[in-house]
Amino acid sequence: MYLFQQIEEVVLQYNDTRRAIGEFVLKEKSNLRQLSMNEVAKRTYTSKATLVRFAQTIGYSGWREFISAFMEEVLYEERSHAEIDPNFPFNEQDSYEMIANNIGVLQAESIKDTINLLDVNMLNQAVGIMTKSKAITLFCISPYIYLAEVFRRKMLTIGEIVEIANPLEASISTQVLTENDCAIVISYSGNNEILEPIVHISALKKRGVQIIGITSGGDNYIRKNVDCALTMSSRERLYSKISNFATEESVHFLLNVLFSCYFKQNYKVNIEHKIFNSKEIERQRFSTLNNINENP
């Protein structure tokens, strides 16, 4: 998880001076270089000691260390500025044509960003884990659970049964997996171990289940506790946005890559299986349609 996402989490979790400081930092990120600690304290109606405690909440020893790291991230964000803002890709003045164009550009940028973030060694490891596993179960919540369903269907077309843990019964799914199985855990923040789906990682590890994580960039709980992690496009804010356009496209892309690499492991057999089944399904559809048609 990147630093600006950690700050957003603080804003969401706390209803005290930490929220006021976090909101100020996010709003004035481009101007923080020119502001002294005293000026920030004055404008947030806090104190220098409170600013230090805010920095410590996020894991820094003091305000100076925090600001240094944050400004590095701001500088990186400015240098790698995307053509379309992933959080607000359109506004109320835009025409329908402009909105369509912006969403198209944003989705393409999201995939390009995901490719740039892709660690091939991690991908090799993830595919190896899936190939050796008897069972594959995905742990995620909305909206990623719908993308997981598309992945499940693709795997089914080559004869591989993949389960999606129902968030209401995910604890049960956890208890039936063994060291011969693998779990794919999808979470953007990847950092709250008491909430779905991250809450199940500890139990999965105890049962020896190998875990593939799909999460945002930077350091977070998932990366520290899984066997390998793939990085989704991480330019979106946690809550200050219209929708999950970029992350949804990124996760969909990564799941397609996992399926394709898994498919490649047994390419000829999978092609034959896929074509044979497709023909059978279409033959059944054609037969059913003929039975429905009335004779003249």
From TrEMBL:
Q: What is this protein called?
A: MurR/RpiR family transcriptional regulator
Return the InterPro entries for the record. Homeodomain-like_sf, HTH_RpiR, RpiR-like, RpiR-like_SIS, SIS_dom, SIS_dom_sf, WH-like_DNA-bd_sf
Top-level taxon of origin: Bacteria
Source organism: Paenibacillus donghaensis
UniProt domain SIS: residue ranges: 126-268
Q: Which Gene Ontology molecular function entries are recorded, alphabetically? A: carbohydrate derivative binding; DNA binding; DNA-binding transcription factor activity
Q: SUPFAM superfamilies from the entry?
A: Homeodomain-like, SIS domain
Q: Where is the HTH rpiR-type domain?
A: 1-77
Q: Which UniProt keywords are listed?
A: DNA-binding, Transcription, Transcription regulation
CDD domains registered for this protein in UniProt:
SIS_RpiR (cd05013)
Which Pfam families does the entry mention?
HTH_6 (PF01418), SIS (PF01380)
